[in-house]
Amino acid sequence: MKATVLLIDDSKFLRKANELALARFGYSVLTASDGDEGLALAREKIPDLIVLDLMLPKLSGAQLLEALKQDPGTAHIPVVVLSSLPISNAAKLQTAGAAAYFEKAKLGVENGSAALIQAIDKLLSSSRSLANPQKV
Predict the structure, then answer these.
(1) Within a 10 A sphere around the Cβ of 36, how many other Cβ atoms?
(2) I want to staple 93 with a disulfide (CB 3.0 to 4.6 A). Which of 53, 98, 103, 126 is the partner?
(3) Which DSSP string corresponds to 54-110?
């Protein structure tokens, strides 16, 4: 297995589609359907990366991102943010700690999985490089 990715999305369809795509590329996948469940899983399992929907029931995606980045146990985890709404405040998300952002409408299910997986691969490669610097 490559790495563990936590998918937090209230859409059962998108959660399953992304879970299958990530599993196909060798990732171990955890899923949560709301912000509270996602925060609990992140703290318990410490995944290598989190894919986070902004519009979640209970604890919103923005609140969850803030909680993750303020917790010393989860602050290091890269977070990829997804939203069904166009985000005009992408800079605000990056300031809050998001490593990448995707609009769901622009991703589409077939194309989106490839773009999302490419971003995840890149983020995990760079975080591993920082954790294990190679002597040149």
Answers:
(1) 14
(2) 98
(3) SS-SSS-HHHHHHHHHHSTTTTTS-EEEEESSPPS-HHHHHHHT-SEEEEHHHHTHH
What are the structure tokens assigned to 60, written together? 């919103």
Q: What is the pLDDT of residues 31-61, one digit of tens each?
A: 999 999 999 999 999 999 999 998 899 999 9
Q: Are 105 and 84 in contact (CB under 8 A)?
A: yes
Per the listing, tokens 């519009």 go with: 55
What's the mean pLDDT when you consider all of the chain? Answer: 85
Nearest alpha carbon to residue 87 among 61, 111, 112, 123: 61
Task: Tell me the pTM.
Answer: 0.87
DSSP symbol at 33: S
Homologous superfamily (CATH) for 4-131: Response regulator (3.40.50.2300)
